[in-house]
Amino acid sequence: IVTVNCARLLKADHHATNGVVHVIDKVIATTTNTIQQIIETEESLETLRAAVAASDLNSLLESEGQYTLLAPTNEAFEKIPRETLNRILGDPEALRDLLNHHILKSAMCAEAIIAGLTMETLEGTTLDVGCSGEELTLNGKPIIANKDVLATNGVVHFVNELLIPDSAKTLFELAQESEVSKSTEFFRQAGLSSHLT
């Protein structure tokens, strides 16, 4: 699938006497803002804006290149426990890992994403990006709220859930989601859960 500024190429190589015509499915709008400028002007990304500034990722998101930012909205940040959010925001390393987990190494328009595609993030982890009917999915869940916001250095998809990588979780949080969740309950009963958090 070929796209031009996220417009799908429908028919290619119509030769004319004075050139060639490619048919696309949308009108291409002028793109002038970087990904960083989109974050700075979008009200629903206020928490993300603060997180990017705290982790010093501004320069990356305004630099030349082609990235995909899966931008968590304010609503996405509000869905996780306040204690967890404060811990991540107060830990520069965990915060950087969290944000890098939301940045793909190449620009991926929704039209060019096919089911079963695995994409590498800047953090070095992978995300399963796919589709379910008309909806774009991440790790099998349709959590993309707004897609294909174009920037001069890539594309932004707004997501309404936070994607927290293992490297930004405490031992307790990791254990709760795994086959050793019963063991964490024993730690809690023994008054030792602080060691895991």
From TrEMBL:
InterPro entries: Adhesion/Biosynth-related, FAS1_dom_sf, FAS1_domain. The gene is Tgfbi. This is BGH3 protein. It comes from Halcyon senegalensis. It holds the Pfam family Fasciclin. Residues 1-28, 32-163 form the FAS1 domain. GO terms for biological process: cell adhesion; extracellular matrix organization. It comes from the Eukaryota. One of its GO terms (molecular function) is cell adhesion molecule binding. Transmembrane segments: none annotated. One of its GO terms (cellular component) is extracellular matrix.
